Amino acid sequence: MIRRIDPGFQRRMLCLILMMLLQNLAGNLRMSSSYAIVLPDLIFEPQYQPYSKDVLLGHFEPSEHPDFERIRGYNAHPTMYLQRQAKLALDSLIAAAAAEGINLNVISATRNFATQQRIWENKIRAKSNGSFQALTKNRQLQIVQNILNYSAMPGTSRHHWGTDVDFCSVELAFWRGNTGSKVFRWLQDNAAEYGFALVYTQNRSGGYNYEPWHWSYLPLAERFLEDYRNTVSYEDLAGFNGAELAEELEIFPRYVQNVFDPMFAMLCTP
Ligand SMILES: [Zn+2]
After folding, report:
1. What is the mean pLDDT of residues 100-117?
2. Which percentage of the chain shows pLDDT scores above 90?
3. Residues with CB under 5 A from ligand 1 (ion)
4. pLDDT band at 79, cuts 50/70/90?
5. What residues does each domain of the chain span?
6. Fewer Cβ atoms within 10 A, N terminus or C terminus of the chain?
7. pLDDT of residue 130
8. What is the pLDDT of residue 37?
């Protein structure tokens, strides 16, 4: 008896094989310096310098960092910063949206470790009545997992990198409403042209919940993620309540790396 193979499965397998071949090719090319001379910048940049661990973990002051620039005039949040290249792309994205009557208010951009720590500790305090360390480990795990639905541990947020922004509102109700749906449709149709993508999409398994407000400038953020993978270890996560649970909760694979993969989506979209 001949069984028909599900065409969806066939396509997924083909994508997987193609991805593996591409990754293999990229790995080989990186190892061979003679190829670097003839390869275009799009594929491989010979002078590429990894980002510092301090920036990857958010241990810096955006207002004093030479790569960061203040973003102005979008809304009532006066002191927000982004990496210069991301800021320029964001300016173009916002202008294009405005020309079509879409208001892209930025409500959050770069958040350093200290800012993320304040957010994190406020949530820990609220959920543990100020006595987190006195709780059982199981209760601590429950609380931390609950906070992780929408908030990153300090040292693990993409907002540290200066490549990611939150638009308009962090309430799902806004995005389900008329204005939010219109903004979201516009972003879906146009953001990629300016380098921005939704990273916490609906179809991932585990990790942060769906965040229609969070958009990432991928030309920089992809490099940050790669450097983060290669540089940061669980020992680097310290100085806040729940830090000692990071490894058990598999924060790196389940949260930091659990994002929409643009290359996979490009290859696998029918
Ligand atoms: Zn965000």
Report:
1. 96
2. 72
3. 166, 214
4. confident
5. 1-41, 56-268
6. N
7. 85
8. 39
Tell me how far the alpha carbon of residue 256 lies from the centroid of ligand 1, in angstroms.
12
Whole-number Å distance, alpha carbon 233 to ligand 1 midpoint, is: 22
Ligand 1 center to 257 CA (angstroms): 15
* Ligand 1 centroid – CA 170 distance (Å): 8
Task: Quote the ligand 1 centre to 102 CA distance (angstroms).
Answer: 20
Provide DSSP, the chain. Answer: -PPPPPHHHHHHHHHHHHHHHHHHHHHHHHH-HHHHHHS-TTT--TT--PPPHHHHHT-S-GGG-TTEEEE-SSSS---EEEEHHHHHHHHHHHHHHHHTT----EEE----HHHHHHHHHHHHHHHHTT-GGGS-HHHHHHHHHHHTTT-PPTT--GGGGT-EEEES-S-HHHHHSHHHHHHHHHHHHHGGGGTEEE-S-TT-SSSSPP-TTEEEEHHHHHHHHHHHHHH--GGG--SSTTGGGTTTTTHIIIIIS-S--HHHHHHH--
Q: What pLDDT, on a 0 to 100 scale, did the predictor assign at position 203?
A: 83
What's the 167 CA to ligand 1 centre distance in angstroms? 8
- 262 Cα–ligand 1 center, Å: 18
What pLDDT, in 10s, does the model give residues 34-63?
333 344 445 555 566 889 999 999 999 999
How close is the Cα of 103 to the center of ligand 1, in Å?
18
Query: What is the 168 CA–ligand 1 centroid distance (Å)?
Result: 11
Q: How far is the CA of 169 from the centre of ligand 1 (A)?
A: 10
